[in-house]
Fold:
Amino acid sequence: MMAQQKWTTIVLAVMSLGLWGYLVAFEHTFQDFNPPQQVADRFFKGQRHQYSRLVIEGEYGRMVFAATEESDEDEEGHPHDPKWRMTVPLEDAADGTAVTDIISQVTALRKGEPIEGEEEAVYGLDDPRLSIELEGEIDKAKVEVGKQTPLGTSVYVRISGLTYVDEEAVWVVAGSFVNSALRPAEGFRSRSLGTISPSEIRKIELESRKGGAAQSITMAKTDKMRPWQMSAPYAEPCDPGTVDGLLMALLRTRAEEFVDGEADPAAYGLAEPLLTVTLSDEEGRVKFGPVSIGRVEKDGATRWYGRSPDRKTILFLGVGVQGLDVDADHFRLRKIFKPLTGADLVDSFVGFRFGPVEDHWTLNQDAKTGAWRIVLHSPVPGQAFDFAVNAQALRDLKDILRKFEIAEFVTEAPTPEQLEEWGLKKPVWELGFALPDATGNSILFGKVEGEGAEQTVYAQIDGRGDAVVRLAADAAKLSLPDNHRVEDFRDRLVWEVPADAKVVSISTSLGKTAAPDAEGKWPEESKYWPYRIRRIVTRDYPAGWASVTGQVAAPAASLTIGWEDAQGEKHETVIRYEQVPERPKAEEEEKPDAPKEVKASIDGVEGIFYLIPYQVWDHLDVPEPTE
Structure:
């Protein structure tokens, strides 16, 4: 038994040492940089971006690639890979990823111990199946590849041109680069329209023929974190989503076929391209284009083609291309209050103005308390009313504003006749917005067209010149008179007994009275009555207020609440009801002609509000009928 435990302990110890060794090897193999020892073990001393020429010769013939520009650095100081061209067997842009992948693998080859004692034919080096030549700032060498090793994961190579490597020696190296290099020339041709990192792009210049006539479009941004701004044909912010969509379409689209030789551009929609694109970096250097995009209808399908200025070939891009049929309107910001930064623009507003300039009301936020109030201007000079705001109504308004979207850019320069036709010569309604810095803008609303989700409204937006747009359904709905009533925004709480006050008497015009005794106790039959009338609340929003001004003219009943404040001063509050509906028995169904709501008002509180019948019965202490 002891012997068995001893052997178990030894086995576990060996396994632990093996695992430790594996992890150490794994850690040294996968590092973010080349440690000094690994650099010293490499055949090549240069990094991949330092090489400018690559020659591959094998079963697919001889292919020569040349870097077309020197490597530069990105914003963080990391070197970019140069752009590559194939010069043999044909002249064309090369797939930079494929070329740099081979260079990376070859320059990473590490030396072991050379193999000696056999003829070169044994290793397949008397007639190498592949040779790769690299030329750069530091190294110029040739790698000849022979047979695979018996295990098949490595190959025998001979390296010449490096003074510190024996040209006659045979080495065993990782063979993953062989399959990458053994491909036909077609496999090394670039299938992209161009290469540039999206983070480098600072300026986009387009010429679009989407509508037939050529339209020049210019968009730019000052740095990669700033939003895109259009400067032509309009001076306004761009919708970042549509700009990003264009860039992704340009940079990710891949050619399915190459059209080589003499080709008639008109046959591919390139005589007058649908779109021409030029992309520049922050130094103003053109890094992409001008690339031309053509479109033709053929065999019942829309076929897309592209051509770059440095390539003789035309690229067939396929039939499912999207995102390249664009004009200036495509990039315009359609969400009126869409934030271009992280902040919610709608939540930044501190005021809203509703109605014509000469007869309007406002929602204003107090700068100190943050509370919102309604300010209603009276026809009487110098008179105004101030009310608390219904929080839910305010949230609903903000949610609608966040959805405000331009359905159509109608015209930039409307005629007087058009303004008349669209209801904007004398706008039906105006909605204004105020920001904390006292700036803001407004929207003028005109004619509403359509129904439901298809409903739109003609509008002019402050800051967009004389342009007329059509806003989508949410804006159209809000612009209708019944949907922006001041009554909808007034708080549901009409009145309440102050928290530090006490009710001392209750009476109704129907003959009911109640009051506490000398010890403050209410009669048993009325003990809950004071609690039912401490807070007077209207019906649920948005049917809470019939009018924010005025009083019930001919009340059918009234309730008088006597209350005493914390200082002992006595007050009376009178509630007047336009009618007192007949109360049904508990088991009876509501009568068909019974009112759904009752108008009421409170002396000293401006406005007429709605109560449901049960509230009226509770206030007036109307009992349930009995047999």
